[in-house]
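Researcher: Predict the fold of MIR domain-containing protein.
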Amino acid sequence: MYNKTSIQLRHIKSGSVLGLYYDYNYYAYCKSPITEHTEVCCNGSEDLWKFKHIKLENHQGYLKSNDIINLSIAKSFLRSHDVQFTIGNDTFQEVVCHSERLGGNDEWRIELISQD
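Model: Structure tokens for MIR domain-containing protein follow.
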């Protein structure tokens, strides 16, 4: 069944897989220096995400474009928010994982793309 399936999230430009990095020296996931939430990175030690549809409908066992889902990994949920950080001259939006109450910043819309 689809909701027991794990998926990988791949960054299109770099080809890197999005995940969490577990620091075995500290026995913990790396934390964001800005928000103290769990840091999401490319090529982490854990990269298999589980997903759950937001609306309880018959999804016929697959994801399709415009479905809205929550993504989780290691008992945490993927969140986007307005916190930004700068590396050199480039500004980035922080994406983290958390175990707090779910809200609108935890909802992700599926966009299926073809790889021609």
